[in-house]
Design a protein that fits this description.
The chain is 66% helix and 0% strand. With 364 residues, it is an all-alpha fold. It comes from Actibacterium atlanticum.
Length: 364
Amino acid sequence: MQTDLLQEARRQAEICNACRYCEGYCSVFPALHRERAFADGDLTQLANLCHNCRGCYYACQYTAPHEFDLNLPKALAEVRRDSWESFAWPGPFARLFQTHGLRIAVVTVLGFALLFWAIRAIGSAGGDGFYAALSHNAMVAIFAPAFLFPLFSLALSLRAYWKSVGGQPLRLSHITGAFGAVAKMKDLAAGHGDGCNFEDEDRFSHARRHVHQAVMYGFLLCFASTSAGTVMHYVFDMHAPYGLFSLPKLLGVPGGILLTVGTTGMAMLKLKADRNLADAKAWGGEMAFIALLGFVGLSGLMLYALGSTALMPVLLALHLGAVLSFFLLTPYSKMAHGFYRLTALIREEQNKSPTPNPKPAAAA
């Protein structure tokens, strides 16, 4: 990891630890105030606990033009992005996506769409509905490895992160506590419960919390829809296409709507927000990820609405290209931040336990 980013984050964390005005604002400050000195692993953990709500910045009396020039949200955002790039496997792809995210997303979506179109053209189709354009076996052969690869890559990355922050053997209470915080998006409401200051300086708002919830639950519904279709196909011998009141559609249509609305809202908030309070190098990659995930949801809805028209083969190729790109880019896009943040929250639950785990040796 970059030493200069860690040094600047350490400087600011030490000042915040002496001040303690923001105690209780979010998960970061109780964790920060438990420390007397900050090893590299401590700073990495704090950075991945931070949700960039920015409340501490607008409450701080030591921001510029004060000589301390504190900007803790930006300092932690830079360490956070650097940690993802350092722990990612293979690492160079993560750095490439952060700087050229939009171009990579567009090229991969169109490239995979052309691939699916070519497969259709050489005659792999066989079946009803979408399977008339691309056979079920062809879809499974392509998407099964694409689904397993990001899981393997993320597992290696999170293992490295866990070791870096001194993670200890898990208990069920640690996991349930972290999942409860994620389900409620508690830290996006901040410690006072009034919301965060992400999009409009010192005005509190729950808008960012709500769009994150829409994206998260939309994605989970879409995943549940795909899982339901898989079970129906292989266990009950019920093959697609499925009707509107079937389980895959009852889960997938609301999921697609939530994904589309949530990513649109997220993009609008990021465009309104002050970029100086975030990591400038990650902005393009974050917007590319939001656009890609939003297109997955939107193209899925369009495919359902126009699936019986002549546009179906083109829409199917674009939708599958977007889904395949999303899976393969997950370990290097901001989708990975959800896994890191969950892992950071689990580690925080360990640190809050009445019998704390032993601290790791300070990093050099």
